[in-house]
Amino acid sequence: MPSVAVKLYSVFFKFLLKHRLQNRIQGRPEDSDPFGVTTRPDESVAPANPSFSDGVATKDIHIDPLTSLSIRIFLPDSALEPNSQPSSKPEPGSVNHETSSLRAVRRNSYEPAIFSPREEERRNSGGDSGGCGGAYRGYAPSPAGNGRRKKLPVVLQFHGGGWVSGSNDSVANDVFCRRVARLCEAVVVAVGYRLAPENRYPAAFEDGLKVLNWLAKQANLAECTKSMGGRRRLEGQHKHIVETFGASVVEPWLAAHGNPSRCVLLGVSCGANIADYVARKAVETGTLLDPVKVVAQVLMYPFFIGSVPTRSEIKLANSYFYDKAMCMLAWKLFLPEEEFSLDHPAANPLAPGHGPPLKKMPPTLTVVAEHDWMRDRAIAYSEELRKVNVDAPVYEYKDAVHEFATLDVLLKSPQAQVCAEDIAIWVKKYISLRGHEFSY
């Protein structure tokens, strides 16, 4: 069972959340604001930090002039190393230290050398981290060794918060995305989608798809820039792109270090609903998104529901942190009144007419918690994927609650860190360059 501290904090958390939801229901605006909001005034926000002080640099970008849609990019310092092949055998005793605590050492991973101590040793010894002691600006520094800059996969991340709260730059989401960027050795793009009730369905879903299309546009613009003059003329060509395309400018961090052909969608709670929607749209769009390729998705305790209750929805209706009654309030704030249904395509992934056949979906890892009332429906969705031969494992964590790996008060727990490591091990099966890539 969860600890006494978790139980007490859950009571306090639910009291505050219920109060906020009821206030928003009573004071909801008559007309929605197309610009919308992506974070609440009471949210603790972590400022962007372009230096590699903890191994990850971050920057914020507002990518849509018509809405508040924004992203935060997390760039791990492993991107500054020359491109190289991983060793064929794991280094015995290899372990990497996070700033908060030791991570558990995983032995049977898909990638032999997932955790390497070289970056940590260099920082601890006061060595130079690729020439980036200060803020990292973009294409510099020059690659070393064989002259090839390391290209990293891209993880598109959608935060949780029950549609009405949370943000991509919150303290908790910032810590979680930094952890994912380090463990997966990937560029993480956290999406700041519009919140309800100011912007109801399908605003958040449209924002998720818009970011995926933005990644495709960025990749094409970067390739265009490269063909127009090569690396030495990049800054001049970048100015030309700005003048010609306006807001669609080349993002240097992604252009220099991102490989969009290895893109993973990662959704947390209601963000998992967005990730699943974006994955379906990516399947429908197909090659029109080239060179972006969604190779896998991770659904962390997805916010699924349906009109026919499952066993966990009955047995655990009053579960920790997010009980069923409060989640019903969140759904009423998110779905338009005329469309409200627990079998709405945004709520129930197995509702008829939801989208493309499940057999076309990318490999899908589902993370569930033992004490979460949403667990059974998430497991049922995973089972349906496996029936049509989609790689869709379920990782269930004992004595865990909803958002156990992403909630601020639980982020430093050993279980949260092990969960992130487990995700990284599975994800590396599909983002490696070993011929495992999923194809539509």
Question: If you had to describe this structure to a student in words, what would you say it looks like?
Answer:
- Strand 5, helix 7 (270-285) and strand 6 form a beta-alpha-beta unit.
- The longest helix is centred in the middle third of the chain and has 27 residues, at 203-229.
- The protein has one domain: Rossmann fold (3-Layer(aba) Sandwich).
- It has an eight-stranded mixed sheet with strand order 1-2-4-3-5-6-7-8, sandwiched between helices.
- It is an alpha/beta fold.
- It is globular and about 60 Å long.
- It contains eleven helices and eight strands.
- The chain has helices spanning 4-26, 118-124, 171-184, 203-229, 234-245, 252-257, 270-285, 311-315, 324-334, 375-387, 414-431, and strands spanning 56-62, 70-76, 152-158, 187-192, 258-268, 294-300, 364-369, 394-397.
Strand and helix order: HEEHEHEHHHEHEHHEHEH
**Strand runs, count:** 8
What level of helicity do the residues show?
A: 25-40%
Low-confidence spans: 84-133, 139-147, 231-240, 242-248, 435-440
Morphology call:
globular
